[in-house]
Amino acid sequence: MMNNGWIKHIQWDFPGGMLVLLAVVLLIIAAVILSYRFSLRNMTGKQRFILTVVRVSTFTLIFFCLCDPRVVMEKKINLSGKRKIAVIFDNSSSMCRKGFSGKSRMDDALTYWRNNFKKAGSGYDFSFFSFAGGIIKKSHFSE
């Protein structure tokens, strides 16, 4: 049984992540403060403060737009119970032909199945199919 839900979050496209983003914003603030500190000397402190806030806000808004923020909706799927997997074996004549090793490709496929996937069977619900001319449902992989 699946318990589905939607997750909404904001996604940013800024290289370097939040640490670099914070460093760039701090750099912008420092550059603006320094530019007003050493220029426009005949302005009052209140005027410099207002111009600094306006310039920092403008740069931050432009920078924010360049980061391309957007709301992303993702579907969360919680799986409970066994996962269903369909296993399809090729029973055509080419699979039953003996190879250089003396074993057929079907023998190699079944050996690979036994050694790797049969052990993982506890968390999965396998359905087995074979095909040569058409698809036939099997009750077990060795049929």
Low-confidence stretches: none
Main beta-sheet annotation: 3 strands, mixed
**How far do the termini sit from each other?**
30 Å
N-to-C order of helices and strands: EHHEEHHEE
- State the total count of DSSP E strands: 5
| Alpha-carbon Rg, integer | 32 Å
Mean pLDDT: 77
Beta percentage is 25-35%
Structural class from helices and strands?
A: alpha+beta
Number of domains: 2
> Roughly how much helix do the residues carry, as a percent range?
40-55%
Coarse shape: rod-shaped
Number of helices: 4
Briefly summarize what is shown.
The chain is α+β, with helices and mostly antiparallel strands. Helix content is 42%, strand content 28%.
Task: Give a written overview of the molecule.
This protein is an alpha+beta fold. The chain folds into 2 domains: 2-75, no CATH class; 81-138, no CATH class. The protein is 42% helix and 28% strand. The chain is built from 4 helices and 5 strands; from the N terminus they run βααββααββ. The chain has helices spanning 17-37, 45-66, 93-96, 105-117; strands at residues 2-11, 70-79, 83-90, 124-131, 135-138. The protein has a 3-stranded mixed β-sheet, with no helix packed on it. Strands 1-2 form a two-stranded antiparallel sheet. Strand 4 and strand 5 (135-138) form a beta hairpin. The longest helix has 22 residues, at 45-66. The model has no long low-confidence stretch (mean pLDDT 77).
Offer a few descriptive terms.
single chain, 143 residues, 28% strand, rod-shaped
